[in-house]
Amino acid sequence: MNTLAPLAACVLASVAFAVLLGEAAAAGSVHADDVSNWGQILAAFAGSAGCLVAARRSIGERRRGWAFLAAGTATWGVGQVVWTVYESVLRQPVPFPSAADVGYLLFPVVAGWGLVTWMGLRGHGAARGRDVFDGLIIAGSLLMLSWLTVLGPIARAAGADGWFSLTLSLAYPVGDLVLGTLVLLAFLHVEHEQRRSLWLMVVGLSCIAVADSSFMLLEATSSFSSSDLPSNVGWFVGFLVVGLAGLAAPHAGREQHDTWSDRHQKIAGTIDATLRLSVPYLALVVALGALGVRLLGDPGTPTTAILLAGVLVSMVLLRQLLAMLDNQRLIIDLAEAQRHLEHEATHDPLTGLPNRILFSARLDRALAAPDTVVNLMFCDLDGFKRVNDDHGHDVGDELLKVVADRLLDCVRDTDTVARLGGDEFAVLLHDCSDPDLVAAMILEAIAQDVDAGPVRASVSVSIGRVRHVTGPRDDRDRAHRRELAGSLLKRADGAMYAAKTAGRNQSQVAQDVVVPLVRELDAV
Questions:
Q1: Going edge to edge, which strands form the sheet with 424-430?
Q2: Distance between CA 502 and CA 514 in Å, rounded?
Q3: H helix runs in 465-505, sequence order
Q4: Are 510 and 495 in contact (CB under 8 A)?
Q5: Which residues pair with 128 in a beta bridge?
Q6: Measured distance CA(73)–CA(224) in Å, rounded
Q7: Which helix (H) or strand (E) holds 132?
Q8: What is the separation of C-alpha 336 from the centre of its chain, rounded to a whole number of angstroms?
Q9: Statement: residue 77 has pLDDT above 80
Q10: Res 145 pLDDT > 50
Q11: What element of type H or E holds 286?
C-alpha cells in the first residue's frame, strides 16, 4: 500500500496541532489544555484504528499481535479520556496517581504482549535463549542510557514522595524501554516487507518515550501542565505514527512483487544478517560510551550504572556461550542432513540396500586391494513378473523387501548385497572360502514361500557367478578397474541368463567366453 498520502496527512495534522497548541498556550487561553487533551484522544484512537487495519490484513500470529497493539493503544486513549474528564470537563486538577495512570500504564503491557505475539519466536532451546539474551542486552543498554539521562533524575525527584510514587514514576520510562526493546527484537526477526511498519513503529514509540520522560520529569517537580508543548506534541505525533505503521503493514497472502535484482537481494540479506548480529552489541557500546562520558565529566560515581554495566558484560558472555551451543547444533544438524542425503543417493529407497552407485564403488575398492579373491553374483528372480501381474505392485514391493532380507541373511557383514534395479540383485563376496555354499543358501532361501501382504507368493532365483583374484600389487588405475568391473558384471549377467536357459532356480559359473543369450528371458 502506498503510505505517502497517510504520511502527508500525519505530518499536516501534527503541524496543525503544534501550531494550535502553541498559539493557545502563548495567548494564555484557558482552552490550551482542552486542545491538548482532545488532540491526544483523537491521536490515540487513530493509532488504534491503524493497528486494527493491520490486524484485518494479517493472519495467524501477526493478526493477534496487531490486535493487541490496537488494544494497548486504545487503553492509553481511555486513560487520556479520564485525564480529560478531570481537566477539561470537571475543571479539577488531575491527582497523581489517578485512574488515568491505569490506562496509561496498561499501554506498554498490552502493546508489549502484542509485539511478542507478533514476532512468534520459535527455534531450538539455544536459539531461543540467544534471542532472550539479545533482548536483555538491548533492554539493559537502554536502561543504562535512560538511567544516566532520565531515570536517575526522576528517581531522585520522586523518591521524596515515597516508594509508591517512585515506583509509579519509574513505570512510565521502564515501560517505554520494554516496548523499545521488543520493537528492536522484532526488527531482527522479520522479512523485508515488514520493515517499513517497524521503522514507523520505532519512530512512533520513540516520540511517545520522549513525551513520557518529559512528563515524568515535570510531574516529579509539580510543574507539568497539559499545554506543555514537547510532551503533548510527542504523544500526538507518536500515536499517529503508530497508526501509520499499521496502515503500512503488507496484506497477508497478497503476492509481493520484488523488483530487486539477485545482487541487490544478496546485499540486503547480508545487511539483515549484520543487523541481526550487531544491534545488541551496538546498543551495549552506546551505553558504555555514555557511562564513560559520565565518569569523565562527573567526579561522582554512578553506582547503579556501573552495576548495570557489569550485568550487561555477564549477559554478553552468556549470550556468546548460547551462540556457540546453537552453532554446534547447526553443525550437527548439517552433518546429519548430509549423511541422509548421501544415504538417499547411494541406497535403494524400497529395500534399503546399496544401489548400483554404491555397489560399483565397493566393487572398485575390492578390485583395488592386492591379493584378494572377489566373487561376484548376479541374481535375477524367476516368476516375479507373474506375481506383479496377478497381485499388483504393492505385493511385488513387499516380496522384494523380503528377498532383500533373505539375501542379507545368507552373507557376512563384510559382504555387500545391492539392488541393481527391478528384480535384479548383486552380491559381492570378499575372500569367501566357499562361494558354492553361499549360492546354495541363497537358492534355498529365495525358493521358500513369502507372505507378501494379503497373499502368499513364491519365486525362485537364477544366479550367475564370476570369480576374480587380484594381483600382489595394485598397479591398475581407476579407468582399468572400471573396465574390469564392467567385464565381470557382464560375465556374471551372461552366466545368470545361462542359468535361466538351463531351467532356472540354479547357479551357473561364468566361463571365459560366454555366448550371448536371448534377452526375452528378461521378462521371465
A1: 416-421, 424-430, 373-382, 460-469, 507-509
A2: 14
A3: 478-501
A4: yes
A5: none
A6: 23
A7: helix 125-146
A8: 18
A9: yes
A10: yes
A11: helix 262-297
CB 413 within 8 A of CB 422: no
DSSP 89: I
**237, amino acid identity:** V
Give the strand pairing for 507-509 and 416-421. Answer: unpaired
Distance of CA 103 to the CA centre of its chain: 36
The single residue listed with the C-alpha cell 558484560 is: 313
Rounded distance between C-alpha atoms, residue 238 and residue 14, angstroms = 10
| Average pLDDT, rounded, for the chain | 79
What is the DSSP-derived secondary structure letter of residue 252? T
Give the separation between CA 240 and CA 53, rounded to whole angstroms: 14
Report yes or no: 395 and 477 within 8 Å, Cβ to Cβ. Answer: no
427 compared with 162, residue with greater pLDDT: 427
Query: Where in 92-199 does DSSP place strands (E)?
Result: none
Radius of gyration (C-alpha) of the chain in whole angstroms: 39
**In the numeric block, which cell numbers belong to residue 393?**
505392485
What is the grid cell recorded at 359? Answer: 555397489
Instruction: Pull the grid cell for residue 172.
Output: 512510565
| CA proximity to 239, closest of 114, 62, 70, 98 | 70
Amino acid at residue number 16:
A
